[in-house]
Amino acid sequence: MTTSAPLPEKSISEAELTRLAGLDKLDKIHVVETAQGFYVLAKSQGRPSATRYLATRRITTKPRMFRDLKRLNDLLRSIYPLGTIELTCEQVYKGKQVKKVAKKKAKAKK
Question: The whole model's pTM is what?
């Protein structure tokens, strides 16, 4: 029989997340976009201010990162099909600024 290591206080396993969703004990699921991909934060009822990240199976001290939105969407649909999910971006996008060029009006020749 294999036993998994205890999870850090700020993390949650996929099995625990599924269990809480089935019991309707989740307040909110939040997906955060970073430069490395997407990760999931879950806030459960009964534990005030206990927002925990979805941990990887092997390294429970790190959040599970998703690089593919389809895989993340499929997972969240199977775990939390009717719930509301928030999506935010942590990454600062540095786009090129477009300079407005003042157009000179051509004087009409008489």
Answer: 0.70
Tokens 């490395």 sit on residue: 36
Residues 6+ apart with CB under 8 A from 57: 13, 14, 64
| More confident of the two residues 29 and 3 | 29
For residue 4, being part of any structural domain is answered with: no
Mean pLDDT, residues 47-70 taken together: 85
> Is residue 61 one of the residues assigned to a domain?
yes
Examine the pLDDT at 2 and tell me if it is beyond 50. no
89 phi and psi angles, rounded to 5 deg:
-120, 125
Task: Count up the domains in the chain and report the number.
Answer: 1
Q: Let me know if residue 95 belongs to a domain.
A: no
Predicted pLDDT at 48? 58
Establish if 2 belongs to a structural domain.
Answer: no
Instruction: Judge whether 30 and 50 are in contact, CB under 8 Å.
Output: no
Distance CA 36, CA 31 (A): 13
Domain of 83 in residue numbering reads as 11-89
**14: DSSP letter:** H
